[in-house]
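Page 47, continued from p. 46.
Same chain as before, 471 aa.
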Amino acid sequence: MTQIRKARNGVVTPAMQRVAEREGVESEFVRQQVAAGQAVIPANVHHDSLDPMIIGREFSTKVNANIGNSDTTSSIEEERRKLHVAVSHGADTVMDLSTGEDLDRIREDNVERSPVPIGTVPLYGALKQAGSPEDITPEILLSVIEKQAEQGVDYMTIHAGILMEHLPLTDGRVTGIVSRGGSILASWMEANGEQNPLFTHFEEICEIFAEHDVTFSLGDSLRPGSVADACDEAQYAELDTLGELTRVAWDHDVQVMVEGPGHVPMHKVAENVERQQEVCDGAPFYVLGPLVTDIAPGYDHITSAIGAAMAAEAGAAMLCYVTPKEHLGLPEEKDVKDGLAAYRIAAHSADIANDRPGARDWDDALSSARYEFDWREQFDLALDPERAREFHDQSLPGDNYKDARFCSMCGAEFCSMRIDQDARDGSERERNVEIPDLDESRAAEVNRPPVGTHDASAAADRIVERATGDD
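Result:
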């Protein structure tokens, strides 16, 4: 049975227990959230190396990293390095969006090696097999979906919400249809004169997902690709369909999260989240960005992280990172790292704003180390310890400067914290603050340093549990 089916039957699974441990909550609360469809635990029964995690607005904000090859670049070795970089820098899930060669081999390798859930877009594989959008058949789609489920993919983007009647609504857009899956299906519907096969065969897909406990990530095929197109009739018409499909999947005991935009100006970000939560009955919202301006190619990890933080504060459960290469090229290792840094900051900032238990403890501990000029502790607590140490040592590399009461920004004479400390010495103006012990913090794992906390060491135990029917 699927996680949601077990949860509805009152069963707390080992995966739910592990999630509760990672989130610092009661396992019964996890069960209730999964049973209600308000949270998902993407955990394919064939993904033996998985360390279970949860996605839901009542839990810490999660971050997904997209990796994958293309027809023009990357290899399986490069994809392995990207996976390692993504997991070690705090990705909570990883999506393999490969469109080049060796798709099956890369996917199997990712599932075998990854302690975090792996997501895919099976429509890409169907297009590779068919050769052109118009030649895709329902049989090819279902075959590809079933194969990926058998390989252990934990969640799949299924573009089932784009319908024939939605296509004319995109005619006045600045950027048309920017979703790869959406454009493929629009071409298919126009060429074949039939309704979206992912929509017409949705219940068959539900049966495959239920067998392997794959989670739906319902794709936003008509997401806006520019701030001018945000919140238009096409986007919201598809969202209404995604709400209907969410309830169909729940009727089949299949977990669901819903994907969201895209490019959205700041003043419309919360509106998007609130509307999705209403239309989709609280199913977790998984957003790409959103990018709040269109003017910054090369810096879109920044333009999107702004919108991501706002979306998470408003209730989005998972953020899909955007790298500096967005719109420009296939991300490489450094781009993966930079994108994750921006999005871990966005997610953590939202958890602080939403008053997640213990989320600010990390900040307070680092601030204390900074005030005390404990440089080594400050580096260790940093989101990216290596980069923090490198930047400091560029100007003050000697070990003696690790005990110095200044850095090269202000120097010894103008360091504000040194001046403040000297003024307080021997006076009654003592700091009356209590610095948290991070070992005792209630914060979820993702809100504790270091970021890469994913643990696959218990994989062997989980394999035994599944073999004996305990999970």
